[in-house]
């Protein structure tokens, strides 16, 4: 496909688990002159093959299906130039754009100057007194939708929803047909956002973006009877601080215990490992450090042998 500008590109992700950095599939629908002119579909191997049963029940993708698939960084290198030159549209865009940004951050890509729009306020121009879900709005407009939660099908239906909305609104106004850009400019409630300014949702937990802070150590017990005593985790103590991007924090804690490690809630001179995640800037100081990280560094300066691990180092250790 030639790298030309499109009216927009509809995008949809599915994830392996509650972490937004666990993309396991992506669908793209390319729209030019109010028509879908091309599509792409990717299975994606997430950083760890940790799939929640509830996610599998929704989209049907299993760990076995993505074992040989490319990781997100390989997929991004293939689509980066096309995506960067076009506006993205997603249904409930905060979810899909959060997945995109978390995946880009995990693989250390610079956040591009991508613009995006949510199809919910767009389709609200013609979907009156209808629920906001994609399946409800597609049904209201008579759009065929046979495979919900397949990311390619969702992207195509999202694109068709926008195309049909523009067509019907042009018809209603009896005006010269408007393209996507002019349509968006017509209505003040349709906002074009900048991916770089998005504070992404990092997990599905609605109560807090930093759900890992609420996990009690007492909730984590070994799920295996055979623990490798030669594992680098065996009898080593771990403390977590902040929210991880590539793996839900509870999953990470479970893996430590299953490999013979010991979880602690506080940092002291006898701690072996402190795993650093992303901090809620509203809760930490200007230096961005949590109290756990600050304590660990103070103890290290006094001779403690605590090792501080970033997320990449921790995943490599796993």
Can you offer a commentary on this structure?
It is a single chain. The protein has helices at 53-59, 63-66, 72-84, 93-106, 119-123, 134-140, 151-173, 180-186, 249-258, 291-301, 311-317; strands at residues 8-15, 23-32, 35-43, 88-90, 115-118, 193-194, 237-241, 262-263, 273-276, 307-309. It is α/β, with parallel strands linked by helices and 318 residues long. Strands 3-2-1-4-5-6 form a 6-stranded mixed beta sheet, sandwiched between helices. Strand 2 (23-32) and strand 3 (35-43) form a beta hairpin. The longest helix has 23 residues, at 151-173. The chain is elongated.
SSE topology:
Layout: E1 8-15, E2 23-32, E3 35-43, H1 53-59, H2 63-66, H3 72-84, E4 88-90, H4 93-106, E5 115-118, H5 119-123, H6 134-140, H7 151-173, H8 180-186, E6 193-194, E7 237-241, H9 249-258, E8 262-263, E9 273-276, H10 291-301, E10 307-309, H11 311-317
Parallel strand pairs: 1-4, 4-5, 7-8, 7-9, 9-10
Antiparallel strand pairs: 1-2, 2-3, 5-6
